[in-house]
Amino acid sequence: MKTSLIGIKQEIKLDWMDFALNCRLSGLDAKQTRSELFKLISSSFTKGPAKSTKSEITSKEATNIIMNSWITPKKHVLEFCNHSLSAIQKDSELNRIAIHWSMLSAAYPFWFNTSSCIGRLFNFQDKVSLQQIMKRLIENYGDRETITRSGRRVIRSLVEWGLIFDCDTRGSYTQASPIPISDVNLVEIFIEMVLITTGKKNITFEEFVSLPGLFPFKIKPAAVSALQKGSPRIISRVDSYGSTYFSLRSIDQSNKLQD
Length: 259
Known about the structure:
By secondary structure, the chain is mainly α. The protein has three domains: 14-93, no CATH class; 110-175, Winged helix-like DNA-binding domain superfamily/Winged helix DNA-binding domain (Arc Repressor Mutant, subunit A), CATH 1.10.10.10; 180-258, Arc Repressor Mutant, subunit A. The protein has helices at 14-26, 30-42, 52-71, 75-90, 96-107, 109-122, 130-141, 145-160, 184-198, 205-209, 221-225, 251-258, and strands at residues 127-129, 164-166, 172-175, 179-181, 202-204, 217-219, 234-238, 244-248. The strands form three sheets. A three-stranded antiparallel β-sheet has the order 1-3-2. The chain has a three-stranded antiparallel β-sheet with strand order 5-8-7. Strands 4-6 form a two-stranded parallel sheet. α4 (75-90) packs antiparallel against α5. The chain is globular, with a radius of gyration of 19 Å. It starts with 13 loop residues before the first helix and ends with a helix. The model is unreliable at 251-259 (pLDDT under 50).
């Protein structure tokens, strides 16, 4: 588990991610996108003399998170971002929640790791509590205030995206119906994201389809099976025991296949 970067300092709304993606797809440069995105996020906060400074800080933090995901990603995420953009350009009907979720996970592994904690709990119970989630995050990251704050931000974001629901009991959550994923391009994006986020060199078919961190989605095994022949971004191999492994192609390998 990658634990170096936490970074989720604010709740992230789905329409902010959509806005940033649309800016990128329209060719708007990073400086203009940052300015327009900041305006959009700022407008969602209540204005007032006492809250103006706090609102500006909050807006900047949320803007930075989204910029680091879709607009100016770190070097190790850049190729994945370009691949995701290419997939959307080829098929505008791809599920945007799945793609946004993958981009945030790749840019900020804490997003995926928090989802993994939640998914493991949902594997055994229908309702999970904030206390249970925080206990597991602290076990992984240590007892730091940053962890509890960031964990709450991820949870509130998942609620805002409609992936989990608040219960009548405060601090308790239930799972929404998982989003069905049958598109091979989305499965390819998911596999690439998981390998980037976890730092693993490969992952088996069985491990991938049962990952607790993918709990908001129901991945159809047939879509994963379709990648067993490989793809421009994913290498597939079968070991002597019959297990299928997926790994990432190098950039050079991908370019040769696409030429």
